[in-house]
Amino acid sequence: MNTAFTDKPACRIRYLTTGLACAVYGFLLVPTVIVMLISFGLIAGPSQGGGMHPTLRLYAEFLSSSAWMTSVWHSVFIACASMILSLGIGIPATYGLERFAFRGQNMIRGMLMTPLAVPSIIISLGIYFYFSAIGLINSFAGLVLAHTVYVTPYVIMTLAAGMRKIDPQLEFAAQLMGAGRQRVFWRVMLPQIRPSIIAGGLFALLMSFDEVVIAWFISGVQTETLPVRMYSSIQWEISPLIAVASTLLSAVSFFACLVASRVSPADGGDTV
Amino acid sequence: MLQSKAVLNGVNRRNFCLGGMSVLSAPFISRRSFARSGGELVFVSWGGSYHNAVLKGLVEPFMAETGIHVTMVDTPDLAKVKAQILSGNVEWDLFDSPGPLAATGSREGYWEALDTSRLPLSELSVQPTHDLAPFFLTAGGIAYDPKEFPEGRHPRNFEEYFDVRRFPGLRTLRNRVSETLEVALLADGVAPDQLYPLDVARGFRMLDTIKPSIIKWVEATTQTITLLQAGEADFSYSYASRVQTARASGGVSIDFSFGQTLNFLEYLSILKGAPHREEAMQFIAFALRADRQAETMNLLVNRPVNEKAMGMLSQKVLPWMPDINPGKNALVNDAWWAENYAPLERRFKEWTLS
Amino acid sequence: MTMAAMTKDRIGALCTIGPAAAFMVGIVGIPLFYILYVSFNGPHFSPSAYVMLLSSRLFFQSLWSTFETSILATVLSVLLGYPVAVHLARQPARRRALMMIMVLMPFWTSVLVKSYAFTIILGRRGIINTALSCVVGHKVALPLLFNKFSVVIGMANYLVPFVVFPVLASLLAIDPALGRAATLMGARPMRVFRQITLPLSLPGVIAGASSTFIISLGFFVVPALLGGRHDVMLANLVDFYTRETLDWPAAAAIGMCLLAVIGMCGFIATTLRKVRRV
Asked: What parts of the sequence cross the membrane (chain B) (predicted)?
């Protein structure tokens, strides 16, 4: 076969897909980049004159705005509490699912994953009605509880992946040598899945930190979170400070993405 | 139905569920009640320049004088008031709303009775009712960018605002039926003094004609200005006060047409079961004092209800006061809205979505 | 396993999974039933909310809009995601892991950030219109924002990664020898793509498209921020009746309908996948 004959169209197709792919990468990344540029004053945002001068003015304004900062602290608090709580229920649950055999196992597993299958708007609506009825609306407790169930499936998935990777023989050996189930769990299992716990915890933290729909339904004046403030701000006033909040959220997501690519690099396997 | 019953039982037996929850949530709940016990008044008012004016003219002096902390929240919303009262979880104390909303809330029993003896009744041009304290008079009308649309190229009255052929461009209207229906009827040529009772069908027919040109049904009043500035709208239904304050902040090309305005009263009221009723009453009395009215309205650029304050207004803001002489301008009838607001509001909102 | 071990396992499972299960029942299960309960008018049973929906033009309009927008967003996401998956599949493993960040990063970026960015890019005086004005030489103000176009663009931006991942997985599962053999036997690259790559990656495309479509059906933030008021989807209608008109039974009934639609689509998608496998 004449190589020159096949190579030319092969190259053309190669260039075409590379070009298309790069355009899509651009489409995916440009929005975030633009927001960051605005936050540093490198592009003029909407309803702002001038621009093009690199400045941290918006950041200073953001940090000194009590309304924005309060919402940031609310989000941090809720995210931390949800993370702790979701790890607290997620670690034992994953252990139970992975290491015990019992009837209805798959059903239980499915049930723990419901927040993934049901759209947030439905969960939010249900929680809104229910929390209104029992007086948990507009409370930190309510937000933490709701975010905990929202992030727990992700925690369980991450932990389950970690647990499946480790060798059950080790636990078996420990048991043979007389360690009780609890001891095996604390001394043998936990140290081995520590990376998954860290990753799962970080996912929980980040997912709660930028969750908007549930918080939009059940948070109030005293409990407004950063995403809720952003949501109403984009809808209602287009303050340039949204750019700062966005950059903050993007930085957080970038962090999440690094963690994600270290934990489960889609088949790139060798980075872990 | 069986399932519903089961759920009902579950909820009735909520003590059981709550037992577990309250253990988990104890630290947050106590934290919250702690935050609320410190004499913190939640004042729902409007965003943007309005927020800043009320903050400077009223809230900060009030905090300095009484030591009561005030949290300001933007964009009063009657639906949220209803939700709070229904769920028994009242977060807001003081509500700042235009006549139709205030009067509707009054009819629905959303407000606490006021201690009117604490208000300077003899100085007020409009008397308070048992649960509503008038705050100021304001003028709604057409805002535009004079650089883009010089004299003759922008609508000056509501008839022209609805004339998309002569004045092409995107417009805004409010996302509430009051004001919007009046503007539509005035645009259709109804005489200002014969506006009420509103011809609802005629109003909606008129609104149908302008719907494609409405870029946004504005929720937060600030947007009546920011949409113009961002260039999303060419003409905007806004307020003289908002336009003047935007101009005063400098560097903004914006103007307001006094060719025709829709005037209405703004009221202060206290939510039923509000956690800080006494502080809220103190605030209302403070807000109606002549010196406070003058200072606030110098910043807010609306007509004070305290007549003594009229004499204390600065020369700069006087030309921007709503024109209260009958003529082309109309005055919103709060009593009519009290009877008709709720059903029309729903019809209107569904109409905007379809 | 002995009887004793079974019982022990069951107790162990109860102790470990119990708390998480209680959370799920208490904070997702009960609220879901509560929606059903509210949709039938709470303690005073009545199907009036559903009857109201049957005669509501607004409901059917947004039901239709939900499908239309979801289909458009799915098609666009597949069209955009496929070349990315092909491109990634061709990279050596190490490089691919690195380039994946370009897909993972947007995957993790908050939908709020993206929506805000698109209001700036697509606005009447936004980046695109300003750039076009510079090129053309006079003022251009294309209506790109607050309409179906901006909603579909915003949704696709969020959904592309959901297509890339499964398609990439199925592309990587293709034996590279197949392509090589075909080329050796004289097939042109286009033909290799059409007759080998595309059909073998189809399961990935179907998986990606169906999950994208189902996610789209429940979209709330993007249509609320980037759409006009008449581009509302069912999720926004739920919010509207909950918050703006306080008609909770109506909101709950719409929520149940949305859940039913999503459940049905999910069921169809899984059966389709099973049928293909058989």
From this structure: none
